[in-house]
Design goal:
The chain has 266 residues and is mainly α. Among the domains are: 13-98, Helix Hairpins; 103-142, no CATH class; 220-265. It has 13 helices and no strands. It has helices spanning 13-23, 30-34, 41-56, 60-83, 89-102, 105-108, 116-130, 137-141, 149-161, 170-190, 193-213, 218-242, 252-265. It is extended and about 65 Å long.
């Protein structure tokens, strides 16, 4: 038996909530009824990344659609929590509204903040206060470990910077990067895998630090480099085919020559 639902020319948020409730009902969708917070956890991550890709592509229509998919995930989780009597979608909205008002006293109160830097300083202070601690490290510990590693490293470093824990210039960051490179080489010579893992992590962390001073996002830069590699590798494959070379059987010198040609063409 089909679930009755009014057809409309344009739907609103309350309609989405009702649709999700219908999907989760005994007369609804078997797949939707079986889901849990854990089973659709990755969907929230995936939909968020698709929205980001639409932003990067300047795709307004795509962004509109993907934001809808992200909102669906929020509504889905809220409906499951409602069924368990834990919290509701209204609780989610109430919580974020209260947080925005409390953390923007320069808009909704009498605190003065004329620059973005002053806003961030006030935001951090209020955040520590609401979490019941004065420890600056609280701001670092509360960054989710599920963030992409490069992004998390950059955010940790930026929050440390806000309290003055930072190199005065990129020279210090570059020197640290060079030092970590030397330490990685030493670990490689020792053959100690645990030390290699640790030093390689330190090297990546230092590289992210340099990226901050250069005003470039490490996550985006690495993605761009990966895309460039794929593009050039594809061209190498095409060139090899044109020359009758088997990629699997070609020598490293032959492949390097094709790679140089692909780079020159760009």
């Amino acid at each position: 038996m089909a679930v009755e639902f009014e057809q409309k020319a344009r739907y609103r948020t309350e309609d989405l909530l009702e649709i999700m409730k219908a999907l989760r009902s005994p007369q609804g969708c078997p797949w939707d009824r079986e889901q849990t917070h854990e089973s659709i956890r990755s969907s929230l991550i995936e939909e968020t990344h698709e929205a980001i890709e639409a932003i990067d592509n300047g795709d307004d229509a795509g962004l509109c659609e993907e934001l809808g998919d992200v909102l669906l995930q929020v509504v889905f989780h809220a409906e499951m929590a409602t069924e368990d009597g834990r919290f509701t979608f209204d609780d989610v909205v109430d919580g974020i509204c209260k947080k925005l008002i409390v953390r923007h006293p320069h808009v909704f109160g009498d605190v003065k903040a004329d620059t973005a830097g002053e806003v961030l300083k006030n935001w951090d202070a209020i955040k520590r206060q609401t979490k019941g601690t004065d420890a600056q490290s609280t701001l670092l510990r509360h960054l989710p470990k599920t963030l992409p590693a490069l992004m998390r490293a950059a955010k940790v470093q930026d929050r440390a910077r806000r309290v003055g824990f930072d190199w005065p210039s990129v020279d210090g960051a570059m020197a640290a990067l060079e030092s970590e490179t030397a330490e990685l080489k030493e670990a490689m010579q020792s053959g100690d895998q645990a030390a290699i893992d640790e030093e390689f992590g330190d090297l990546l962390f230092s590289a992210v630090n340099v990226s901050r001073f250069l005003h470039t996002e490490a996550e985006l830069s690495l993605n761009a480099a990966t895309e460039k590699f794929i593009r050039r590798f594809t061209r190498v494959e095409e060139l090899a085919k044109e020359q009758g070379l088997d990629m699997n059987g070609a020598s490293l010198e032959e492949l390097d020559a094709l790679w140089d040609k692909a780079k020159t063409e760009e």
